[in-house]
Amino acid sequence: MATEVKVPTLGESITEATLGEWLKQPGDAVARDEPVASLETDKVAIEVPSPVAGTMGDQLVKAGDTVAVGAVIAHVEAGGALPASSPVNPEGAGENIEAKERPAADEEEEGPHLTLSPAVRRIVLEHHLDPSKIKGTGKDGRLTKDDVLAAAAEGEKPEPASAPAKAGAQAPRQDWVPASAGTQERREERVRMTRLRQTVARRLKEAQNTAAILTTFNDVDMSAVMAARAKYKDLFEKKHGIRLGFMAFFVKAAALAAHDVPAVNASIDGEEIVYHDYFDVSVAVSAPQGLVVPVVRDAQSMSFAEIEKTIADFGRRAKEGTLTLAEMQGGTFTISNGGVFGSLLSTPIINPPQSAVLGMHRIEERPVVIDGQIVARPMMYLALSYDHRLIDGREAVTFLVRMKEALEDPTRLLIDL
Fold first, then answer.
1. Residues 352 and 212 in one domain
2. Catalytic pick from 361, 392, 409, 416?
3. CA–centroid distance for 382 within its chain
4. How far apart are the C-alpha atoms of 377 and 173, rounded to whole Å?
C-alpha cells in the first residue's frame, strides 16, 4: 500500500516552495520521519519527512519544480524493499529480496552526510571532490558548505572529470567555449538561482525602489571593548559556557541607542508609523544557501551571555539548515557584520518593513589624534542605512553617536547611560 508524501505547512503566508533535491531515490529504504526531499522557500530550506517507514516509490515532481502546500510529491511503499518486478527496478529479476533489505556495503559507507544540499553539491562538483572522504560537521554528520570548502583548500585529490555523478545528482549546466591552440580551456557555468537568492534579490530591489535609503557613517575606537574582552573572556566562558564576542556589545549598544532614538526601531505601515517598545534584532549569519537573518527577540532585556548563546545557536543551526521560518520573521532592526569577511566599509540595504540596518566592519589600527598626540588605535567604521521617509539625518547621526559613546565606554551599557 502506498502512502502519499505531501508538502508540509511552510509558515505564515507561504503557499509554495521549490523542490531543491530528492534526498531519497526510488527503491531506497526510508524510516518514519526520515527526510526524503528538500524544499527551498523564500527564507529557508525545509526537509520533507516520510510519513511512514517503507520504500521510496514514485516521485511526482522533479528538482526545480514549484510545489504548493499540501501537494502530493511522492509515494512511499509499505515494506522494506520493492518487489523485483517493480518498474523502479526493472533489472531486478532474480535479485535476493531478503538481501536487498539489509544494507549493502556501499550503502553502509554512504552515511547521512552524503545527502548533499544544492550548495554543497555544486562545490563538490566544481572541485571534483569525493564527498565520502570528507568528514561532515552538520546535523547527523551531513556535509556543510564549510566542510567542503575546507577539503578543497586542503587539496584533496580530485576525482577524474569523467567520473559518473552520484545517482540523482544534477551537475550544473556548462557551456564550453573552444580554446585556441596552446591555451587553457575556458568555460562558463550556468546554475539556477535558488528560491532564496531570487527572493533576496527581489526584496533588496524593492527596498531600493520603495524606501528613501540614505547612509551615515561614524568610527569607533574599539580599545575599551577589546580590553574588556581580554580581561573577562576566560571568566565569562567558564561561567556561561560561551565565548564573549563583539556582537553582544553591539546589540546592547544598539538597543541603548534605539531607546534614545525610537524612530530607528520603528516602521511605516501605510500612512502610520509603528513604534515598538521592544528591540528584536535580525542578525545576519552564514548558511549553506546564503545569508539568513534570524531574530534575537527582546534583546533590550537580554544579558550579554544570553545574546551570545542565542547568536551562536543561530549560527550552528543555520549551517545545519534547521532554522525555522518563525525564527526569521518579525525583526525590528538589523545588524550585519561584514567585518568577519574583511569589509572596511559598506552601505547596507534595509530589510523592509524595518527602517534601519547597522553595518559593522573590520577592526584595524589607524592613526588618530588624542589630546593633541597622534596615536594608533583599533578603529572600526560603523554604517547606518536608514529610510529617510521616517528617520531624519539628525536622528541617524544621534543614533551612531550614542553607539560610539557606549562602545568607547562600555560601562554605559551597564548603567543605562
1. yes
2. 392
3. 23
4. 50
- Told to judge if 388 belongs to the known catalytic residues of this protein, a careful annotator would answer yes
Burial 68-104 (b: 16+ CB within 10 A, else e): eeebebbbbbeeebbeeebebbeebeeeeeeebeeee
Q: Looking up cell 534583546, which residue turns up?
A: 299
351-367 per-position pLDDT tens digit: 889 999 999 999 999 99
Nearest in space to 402 (alpha carbons), one of 255, 214, 248: 255
- Contact criterion met (CB below 8 Å) for 359 and 336: yes
Report if residue 70 sits inside a domain.
yes
How does strand 373-387 pair with strand 356-360?
A: antiparallel
Phi, psi angles (nearest 5°) of residue 354: -65, 160
What is the Cα–Cα distance from 210 to 390, expressed in whole angstroms? 12
Cis peptide before 353 (omega within 30 of 0): yes
How far apart are the C-alpha atoms of 172 and 174, rounded to whole Å? 6
Residue 50, all three cell numbers: 516520510
Residues of the chain with pLDDT under 70: 11-13, 42-44, 79-119, 122, 139-140, 155-183, 288-290, 415-417
- Of 33, 130, 388, 409, catalytic: 388
Residue 115 and residue 157 in one domain: yes
For 191, the grid coordinates are 546554475
**Boundary (domain end) residue, out of 139, 174, 209:** 174
The greatest distance separating any two alpha carbons of the chain, rounded to the nearest whole angstrom, comes to: 90
- Residue 108: the pLDDT is 36
- pTM for this predicted structure: 0.62
Q: How many domains does the chain have?
A: 2
Cα torsion 344, 227, 370, 261: sign = positive
147 counts as catalytic: no
The answer to whether the beta carbons of residues 247 and 311 sit under 8 Å apart is yes
Residue-level pLDDT at 11: 66
Domain that holds residue 164: 2-174
**pLDDT at position 107, please?**
37
Per the CB < 8 A criterion, the answer to whether 69 and 16 are in contact is yes
Are residues 378 and 249 part of one domain? yes
- Whether residues 157 and 231 fall in one domain: no
What is the model's pLDDT at position 12? 60
Amino acid at 176: W
